[in-house]
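Fold this sequence, please.
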Amino acid sequence: MTERRYEAPTLTAALDAAAGELGCGHEELAYQVLEETGDRVVVEATVDPQAVLGLFLRRVFTAGGMEIATELTSENDALHGELAGADTGLLTRCGGEALDALQYLSNRVLDARLGEHPAVRLDSAGFKAARRERLARLARREADRAVATRRPVRLEPMTPAARREVHVALADDDRVETDSDGTGFFKRVVIRPRRW
C-alpha cells in the first residue's frame, strides 16, 4: 500500500483521519510525522501489514483462550511469525493442520485488508523444519515403493503446505511424478512411477 499524507490540528486528529480513510485502527497504522507546528500536524501513513497480522493473531488467541505469544519479523518479502506458549501444541498436533490453517487465514485476512502484502509464514519451535524433513523421508520411501511396484502410491490427505513439501522433495527425482488428487483443503498426493 502506498503512503498518504494527512493534515490536522493535532497528531490524534491526523491519525483519526488516516485510520478513517484507510479503514483501520490506530494500532494498525505505520506513520511518520512530517511536520509539526503549534496548530498543524502533517503525517504520512499507511496500513502496516505486520500490525494487522499481530492484531489478528492476538484476537484469535484471546478468543480461543489460548496462551500463545507471537514474535513477528519481516524479511525476504515475507512476514514471519514465531509462536510460543503453553498452547502451541494445539496448533502443531495432527501434523500441524491448525498451524497451516491459521497461516492460510492470516494470508486471507491480509488479502482482504491490504490486497498486496508480504506472504505470512507461521511456525513454532522449528516445527515446520522438522515436518519438512519427516515428509521428505516419507516422500522418498513412497517413491521407492511406487517404482518397485510400478504402481501409483496415494498418501494420506494433507494440507496444502504439507503437500507442497512432498512435491518439492520429489521434484528432482526423475523416476516419479507427483500431483494432488481430491477437492477441498485436504487432498492426497499421488506418486506415480514415470514410464520410460
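The first strand starts at residue 4 and ends at 8. The helical segments are 11-22, 49-63, 89-114, 127-149, 160-169.
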